[in-house]
Amino acid sequence: MGAPSALPLLLLFACCWAPGGANLSQDGYWQEQDLELGTLAPLDEAISSTVWSSPDMLASQDSQPRTSDETVVAGGTVVLKCQVKDHEDSSLQWSNPAQQTLYFGEKRALRDNRIQLVRSTPHELSISISNVALADEGEYTCSIFTMPVRTAKSLVTVLGIPQKPIITGYKSSLREKETTTLNCQSSGSKPAAQLSWRKGEKELHGEPTRIQEDPNGKTFTVSSSVTFQVTREDDGADIVCSVNHESLKGADRSTSQHIEVLYTPTAKIRPDPPHPREGQKLLLHCEGRGNPVPQQYLWEKEGSVPPLKITQESALIFPFLNKSDSGTYGCTATSNMGSYKAYYTLNVNDPSPVPSSSSTYHAIIGGIVAFIVFLLLILLIFLGHYLIRHKGTYLTHEAKGSDDAPDADTAIINAEGGQSGGDDKKEYFI
């Protein structure tokens, strides 16, 4: 019972194995393999050792055309290059994904003006496709008609450019501390783009990008939303939605939404001049801020029952300050969003001791005159001293002309006692 069941297996093994490991070649002849004689391999090993040699395995590497995959942005231009070392006197050919011949050597085969010849030699065939569309994506084939025919594939990937994003969900205005949600959407990207949010230069963390395939089956529509609470600092801010995609090559493609935030007013009182004195004119400016800006200002003074002023103007004017004007003043700035009250304490100082401009001018002139008088006095003193010295020298020279003249070292010689005669008394000056 065991022998008949093993017979089909033995027949199959005999058909697939011969002494010396001979196998059929591509032309139907048996080729010897490196199997040792007398070795019985399992059935699966025997079958795998029987290889029907294909033409590609026997082809020379020098006769095999070479191509490369290309990526192009929709609307751009792609260049397909096919090269071969040994052309074996055959021509190269490019075919599109539908197996339509585009170029055979230098001859155009398909009437499409977007497709142009770049270079044609026995060793190279390069063509360009301009204004590339998404439909042009696919595998392009370069063939060389040797025996056998050899081919190489080039995968062309077309990137779909995302459209400018659109932001929706913004109302005409937002109130302070209100929460809002903005939505952003962009279509036409391939592969699917990514969306990001920011407020000014600060990143906002939105929801993950949602992806939906477009009806054409090739591109995608992406969307995202962001939710945040607004503050008064957000008034006038720009919320930006940006598209990130490799087809943009770093270029910015974004949309901004300018937002307006309504908030209660604030106020601050500023005096002009800053240090008021008695007798001066004083303006107290109530500087109100808010959105909307305050429309009414109420001025009050502590201890005074009736309001001083209710006006749309923000300034309180004192034409001529008195000591009695000193006190604490309040300004209430009001808009339809609410009110805010600011305070200022006024202390009226004594009249200014600072001289007027005319007095200052006179003081400067007086100083200049005093300096000139001082210089003249100095000059007169030196001149008087000079004249006194020169007069003494002149008298000394007269005395030296007589026989009775003393030595030059004697300043004044008075004749006393031992000299006879009053007429002989003489004085000498040096």
Structural notes for this entry:
This protein has 430 residues and is an alpha+beta fold. Among the domains are: 61-159, Immunoglobulin-like (Sandwich); 166-252, Immunoglobulin-like (Sandwich); 264-346, Sandwich (Immunoglobulin-like). The protein has 4 helices and 27 strands. A hairpin with a 2-residue loop joins strand 15 and strand 16. It is elongated and about 135 Å long. 16% of the residues are buried. The model is unreliable at 1-59 and 402-430 (pLDDT under 50). Residues 183-218, 399-430 are annotated as: Disordered. Residues 198-216 have a biased composition (Basic and acidic residues). Belongs to the nectin family.
Do you know the CATH architecture of the domain at 61-159? Sandwich
The overall pLDDT average reads 80
Helix content: 10-25%
Oligomer category = single chain
Cα shape: elongated
Task: Give the N-to-C terminal Cα separation.
Answer: 174 Å
Largest sheet descriptor: 6 strands, mixed
Strand content range: 35-45%
Number of contiguous helices:
4
Q: What spatial order of strands do you see in the largest sheet? A: 3-11-10-5-6-7
Q: Got a strand count?
A: 27
